[in-house]
Design a protein that fits this description.
about 475 residues; alpha/beta; Rossmann fold
């Protein structure tokens, strides 16, 4: 039997004002109690009770309580990801609020009933039909108390961070002026793809993240979304750019001592790598890495163009049967030392003869690529190559992914020039995000002379 209908909250009373330090920043945290006895909170930045009319409307997320997603990290919905992303966006803009509306569990049917609905979904029902089968509306949420909290904080005009047009309409009806609705779309995962498709098909929610990715590939940056936060700067910057990427263990190795590297980081990090490939003109890799893994260096995990593949091979160790030389999938530059004998190659391969023996200096490699119209470059591996480019000061952004594994001994990952004093250590601006079990740290090395600024706030888990 369905739970008894809950009393709709209308009025609120402010009961506390304090501060809450989080991973995204320190927020003002205001607690409210509604006329049913339920407590709610608003986390805000740059929003004052006496806001001036000349300020831009704040960015506001009205977030419905979801224990399974927000606290337990459920993959059946996107609620926890939306909450973290909303906090990150508010922190980045410096002016906004996240209204955390309790009593909205399961679109206001309650936790127990939501889990009963989950059980019906396990049998094939979608989220709407499951609610209806239990005697509930598809969406029982009301927003009177949310509007009351915002008005108490002096917010009667805002930019709404939501992919739900019905939420916008409800707040407008309650006297909130919404100057813009900013979509908040999370990438689908296998476990919630059907749930998210149902929200779009039957409840009118905004479309999914692949549209955002198409915009990024076209050089247009969406106003919100995880992909925009993560790759927007790369898509927006159309000038020369050098990005490096490396995945390694917690103790700093990219492979075991036998060379086994399949796979240090997880599938989501490989998708991240393919997105980086799609956003550059060329991907540079050492021949030993290609020979070990038979790397294809193409874009397969996401839509996007293949970059030109550049294999640095001063000693001629690349096997003639390597995929990059035989598959014809993308233009390939095989850069070899002056004394290396090369076999006949296919039409997609250009053999480039390096003028001198020994190591290939990073900035000279970049000059070579620029002379061929390749100005946006991804340095992908291995560890020695990425380290050489970093030590040469040739990398603008480094994406360093660490996996929760301890290898103990093997092929080293990133190694930079040592310092006698810790105060002289490299401390560039960084941001971090989680991809499954892995952690990506993005370092803005083009601003290596400063310890703050340059990068936006950390983006949330979008795995």
């Amino acid at each position: 039997m369905a739970e008894q209908a809950r009393t709709t909250p209308h009025r609120v009373e402010r009961v506390a004002d304090t501060r809450l330090p989080t991973d995204h920043g320190t927020f003002r945290m205001t607690a409210y109690r509604d006329d049913t006895g339920m407590d709610h909170v608003v986390l805000s930045l740059g929003v004052n009770d006496d806001d001036r009319d000349d300020l831009d409307p704040p960015l506001v997320r009205v977030h419905s309580e979801c224990l399974t997603g927000d606290a337990l990290g459920s993959h059946r919905c996107d609620c926890g990801e939306q909450l973290q992303h909303a906090l990150a966006l508010v922190a980045r803009t410096g002016r906004g609020a996240v209204v955390y509306a309790r009593g909205h569990e399961g679109r206001a049917i309650g936790l127990g009933e939501k889990l009963r609905a989950y059980a019906l979904q396990d049998q094939g029902a979608d989220t709407v039909d499951a609610n209806l089968a239990l005697g509930h509306p598809a969406d029982a949420r009301t927003y009177d108390h949310c509007a009351a909290m915002l008005l108490d904080l002096g917010v009667d005009q805002l930019r709404l961070l939501s992919s739900n047009p019905a939420k916008e309409a409800a707040l407008r009806d309650l006297g909130i002026s919404i100057v813009e609705r900013v979509p908040l779309v999370m990438p689908d995962r296998e476990e919630n793809a059907f749930y998210l498709a149902t929200k779009r098909r039957r409840m009118g929610h905004d479309q999914s993240a692949p549209d955002d990715w198409s915009q990024l590939l076209a050089g247009r940056v969406p106003t919100s979304g995880v992909l925009a936060q993560r790759y927007g700067d790369l898509a927006r910057d159309t000038g020369p750019l050098v990005v490096a990427q490396l995945g390694q263990s917690l103790d700093g190795f990219i492979a075991t001592r036998t060379g086994d590297a399949n796979f240090v980081t997880g599938e989501l990090d490989r998708e991240h790598l393919h997105r980086l490939r799609a956003l550059v003109d060329a991907v540079v890799v050492g021949a030993a890495t290609v020979a070990c893994d038979d790397s294809r260096l193409t874009v397969r995990a996401v839509p996007g163009p293949h970059p030109t593949r550049v294999v640095l091979d001063p000693r001629g160790v690349l096997p003639a049967q390597a995929s990059v030389l035989t598959d014809g999938a993308a233009r390939t530059l095989w850069v070899v030392g002056p004394e290396v004998d090369t076999p006949a190659v296919r039409d997609h391969v250009e053999v480039v003869r390096w003028p001198s023996a020994g190591a290939m200096e990073p900035r000279e490699v970049l000059d070579l690529l620029a002379s061929r119209g390749l100005h946006r470059v991804l340095v992908e591996g291995g560890g020695r190559l990425v380290s050489a480019f970093v030590r040469a000061g040739a990398v603008d952004r480094l994406f360093l992914t660490t996996a929760p594994v301890l290898i103990g001994d093997g092929v080293p990952g990133l190694r930079v020039e040592g310092q006698d004093r810790l105060t002289d250590a490299l401390r560039p601006p960084v941001r971090r995000y989680v991809l499954g079990e892995d952690v990506v740290t993005e370092l803005e090395l083009s601003r290596r002379d400063t310890a703050s600024g340059g990068l936006p706030a950390d983006v949330p888990d979008a795995s």
